[in-house]
Specification:
This protein has two helices and no strands. The protein is an all-alpha fold. Helix 1 packs antiparallel against helix 2. The longest helix has 22 residues.
Amino acid sequence: MGMKDKVTNKLLQATSDKTELNKKMLAWNKSFVEVNKTLGGNIKKNTNNK
């Protein structure tokens, strides 16, 4: 499990009953995805190694 997955899981646990924080975390996640696309370009995630 990568760092991003660990952070995401911990944030989901911490904010599961707080809707305002959930919305903020979703916005952050969207930002992280955009940054990842910008930095990574068209690199596909390796799904063969599980």
